[in-house]
Amino acid sequence: MAPDRRHVSQLRQKIAGLREERKRIEDSLFRPGPMLRGSLSFIPNYCGKPECRCKRGHPHGPYPYVADTHEGRRRLTYVKKTERAQVEAEVAEYVRVQQGLASLAKLNARIRSCFEEIRDQHCRTVDELRRSR
């Protein structure tokens, strides 16, 4: 079976566009800034004083914590006021890079799918070989 040239041409154009998109993402990931692997959470706290307002449903805070996983366990680390802006920026950069990597994976799958369609357009089956004899 002869390949559908119009379809193959459309696939090649699609691949070219996807490769340009991939290049933009790769360029944005090429020189990442400082990162902190984790997520920023704001958690209310309760103290141990028996007459405190937190015992009546008005907790202290919320206070910033960085959550991460260490040796398979989730842990929280308090973020000091003096560190908060830097930690927020580093966590945001980590999230940005992670999202970029996920986008790359999806783009690569789409590009591969297009190449597989081109391959299939140029490929004949064993049944076609048998019929041609």
Multimer state: single chain
C-alpha termini separation: 14 Å
**Number of beta strands:** 3
Provide the helix percentage: 40-55%
Spatial order of the strands forming the largest sheet: 1-2-3
Number of domains: 1
Taking all Cα atoms into account, the compactness measure Rg is: 27 Å
- SSE string, helices as H and strands as E: HEEEHH
Structural class: alpha+beta
Major sheet summary line: 3 strands, antiparallel
Beta content comes to 15-25%
Task: Provide an overview of this structure.
The chain has 133 residues and is α+β, with helices and mostly antiparallel strands. The protein has one domain (5-131). It is 53% helix and 18% strand. Strands 1-2-3 form a 3-stranded antiparallel sheet. Strand 2 (60-70) and strand 3 (73-78) form a beta hairpin. It is elongated, with a radius of gyration of 27 Å.
Set out the fold topology.
Elements: H1 5-29, E1 39-45, E2 60-70, E3 73-78, H2 84-122, H3 126-131
Antiparallel strand pairs: 1-2, 2-3
Helix pairs in contact: 1-2
Question: What is this entry, summarized?
Answer:
The chain is α+β, with helices and mostly antiparallel strands and 133 residues long. It is 53% helix and 18% strand. Strands 1-2-3 form a three-stranded antiparallel sheet.
Keywords:
133 residues, alpha+beta, three-stranded antiparallel beta sheet, 3 strands, elongated
